[in-house]
Amino acid sequence: MSRVALIPGDGIGGEVIAEAAHVLEVAASRHDLPLETVPFDLGAERYLRDGTTISEEDFASLRDDFDAILLGALGDPRVPDNVHARDILLGLRFRLDLYINHRPSVLLDPALSPLRDPPPIRLDIFRENTEGLYAGIGGRLREGTPEEIAVQESFNTRRGVERIIRAAFEFAEREGRGRVTLVDKANAMSIVGGLWRRVFAEVGAAYPEIEQDAVYVDAMAMDLVRRPGRYEVIVTANLFGDILSDLAAELTGGLGLAPSANIHPGKHALFEPVHGSAPDIAGQGISNPIGGIRCVAMMLRHLGHDVAAHSVDEAVTAAFLAGIRTPDAGGTSSTHEVGAWIAEAVDSR
User: Fold this and answer.
1) CA 236, CA 128: separation in Å to the nearest integer?
2) Distance between CA 280 and CA 328 in Å, rounded?
3) Residue 181 — pLDDT band, cuts 50, 70, 90?
4) Which residues are registered as beta bridge partners of 216?
5) Is this prediction's pTM over 0.90?
6) What is the structure's pLDDT at 93?
7) Cβ proximity of 293 and 316 under 8 Å
8) For residue 37, what is the enclosing H or E element?
9) Residue 59: how many CB atoms within 10 A of its CB?
10) Is 149 helix (H, G, I), strand (E, B) or coil?
11) How many C-beta atoms lie closer than 10 Å to residue 79's C-beta?
12) What is the rounded (10 degree) CA torsion for 298, 299, 304, 307?
């Protein structure tokens, strides 16, 4: 029995996760999968009600009792510093050591890309998820004065660098991808960049059949726009991966379509659509559930249910071909209509 924790989140998060959870339940029923979903009351409403971001009991249960977590977008203007979002999302990433952030970007319809005559795009970004500039190392001196100093350290370990690079190569080998590209800024950050480049060369030596190259992050930002079809698997540090994966998502139709996985292989996994909580459109029924539904496919594949995962991916593609889309993707369907259509398609496959 696989157990999945559902954290709806804030704003449109609940709307999207409701549709994604329905598709998950239909896929489990259709393919006779032993799977249980359990909702968790975590988010802005809980924080505003009793001051709890995530309790130790909640964390322990998510860590010990579940095979995967499906998390909706977090963020609420009623919580100006969004402390609940940091504690829940970043807390789970760091405390569960979810060192792989995998964000696939696939162009489902050329008309969705802002590029003129885009090539087929299928790009998988592997972002180191627990180190780098997001590790929270640094401080301030003389705050609020003209002499204020702010320091933020980029923290990189050989272990952390090696395991994310190896994960990228293993994925490329398993999925038949022909190229793995390291993205860094080694010309300006020679100490950190030197570590990444040495380890990339050492790990890559075990995969001679895969083409390998290294590109500076500024050059990659340009080249993804100029020739996105050239790249297949990108591996990079936390900050660079955060930025480039948003760019890749926009090139393939926008954040509403983008899923992500946060994984520690063999231990824990958290899946979340990439979009924000979008409080300005919450409750209007126009949020795009595709990112959340594609998270379901990634989750099913992670849990070993490849056939069910494929049926979800096929249903998403079929929805696009049939014109079942929310307004952000050029359609007129509501959030629920898109989710229901995809669930019915999964049930018929």
Assistant:
1) 6
2) 14
3) very high
4) 184
5) yes
6) 94
7) yes
8) strand 35-39
9) 17
10) strand
11) 17
12) -60
